Amino acid sequence: MEKENLLLRQAEERLAKLAKFPALKKGDSIKKMLKEKGISRRDFMKWAGAMTAMLSLPASFTPLTAKAAEVADRLPVIWLHLAECTGCSESLLRSDGPGIASLIFDYISLEYHETIMAASGYQAEENLESAIKRYKGRYVLMVEGGVPTGLDGQYLTIGAFGHTGLQNAKTASENAAAIFAIGTCSSFGGIQAANPNPTAAKPLSAVTNKPVINVPGCPPSEKNIVGNVIHFLLFGTLPQLDAFNRPKWAYGLRIHDLCERRGHFDAGEFVQTFGDEGAKNGYCLYKVGCKGPYTFNNCSKLRFNSHTSWPIQAGHGCIGCSEPNFWDTMGPFEEPLANKLYDTPFFGGADRTADNIGITLLGAAAIGMAAHAVLSAVRKDKE
Question: pTM of the entire structure?
Answer without folding.
Answer: 0.84
